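YM 10:42: FRG domain-containing protein sequence, as discussed on the call
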Amino acid sequence: MDKKFTWLPFYKELSDWLLGKQNSQPELISKLKEIGITGFRDGTEKGKEITLQEIDPFTFLSYLNKFHSNERRVEILQDLCTELKFKCQVPTDITGLPTIHPMKVHLFPWKTTRGKDDITALWDLFRQAKEGKIEEQLFQTVLDIKSVGKGKLSIVLFYTNPEKFVPLDSNTSSYLRKKKLSYTYDSFASYEKLSEEAIRTLGKKPWEISCDAYDLIPENETSTTIGSIRTLFERLEGELEDTEDYHIFYRGQSDKKYGLLPSIYREEALIQNEDKIFRDIIAQCPTDFKGSTSAFEKLVKMQHYSLPTRLLDITTNPLVAMYFACDDDEVDGKLFRFEVKTSDIKYFDSDAVSVVSNIAKRPIDFSIENIRDLDREGFNDQTDIAYLLHEIKYEKPHFQDVIDSKDIERVFCVKPMFDNPRIIRQSGAFFLYGIDGDKSKPAILKFDYKTYIISKTQKKKIRKQLEALGIDKSTLFPEVEHVAEHIKEKYHITK
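YM 10:58: structure's back
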């Protein structure tokens, strides 16, 4: 056995052990707790938190992989292997094992909203997955369960039977797409065909394919360091063009340690007072916002004035992104290259954009944590949603009284109106962040991306190269005060 895949015998023995545990679900939850895993909430009822009492084997396996630290994940497998007294060798790595989103581990909705047969169907699918023969009807039944998605289902099928099923997490999907192979499905037949085609074409087992995908894009990051504009284009060669299905965006950050977080979420005091910040600036500067008719347009203007918002600046021009990545010579910078599906791109006047933008006006206690799994009618009858609808209809009187709960928890790529010289010069667009359950947490960015490190020792040189190409403060920030500042810097004027 390759030393890189010591988890395989353990997962085989573990899935065999799970087969006999459908009638011992509390025991499964206890085992997870005994090895230090937390987070067994099953929703709320009458204001009281419900503790998880039932579980399916896919969710059990997902709990083992909700941590992003490789060391922690290996430690969990080792503790479980010892606890269960398995015969296999204790695993020492998790190479090629994709993680699960830590906030969305369950493959079933909260207790108060899930179907009575949801967990039973998951157990039935687990047994069939172990055998490698899955009935199409059962597969579709499970895929229709709220909290189950195509990517997540493929990952847990891989956990269950890594000999047969290829995981379609973001890294592996991107990897398969670059290899001109199928990377999505709409039925078990098409998923099985996808897996078989990938195994046959690449000549590798599913875990090796997953490993290759993570080696190519380990945790969404490359180890490449860029020291010049020429190196940048060498790295991006063959990847610059948009396609019919995908569009490319970039973002530069001066410090490689910064995460992809909109400014309103960078300090607790900011998100706690977002609604007040939004209203105060408009109340105090009404003339400046007179032409901004929507909440999104107001957020764009606030971003322009450097107020914290739920927007994250991106650009279609990699040179613009490089300019921002080369600020601050004391630390390494980072360049992000995003691949965004055409279907995920919205325009400034989109209804979905109005929904998320108007969250900025709601107080900090705005939440869909306990109502997200309601049907559409029940969801839109809730008080919090009624208030949000009121805000939306203020700018869009003809907006239908229907909000999709999924939109509230998404990050949208938004193309703004090009009526702002700065946006035009910077080829600008935005990621607009919804929430993750409640307003205190930002939605999870799910777009595929690569990153490149910009060495702090090369930033000054790269800035000179960019200036020769017409990319500098005076061109990206055409307002007179920024042009004046650039001229002073150019001639070393200190006052």
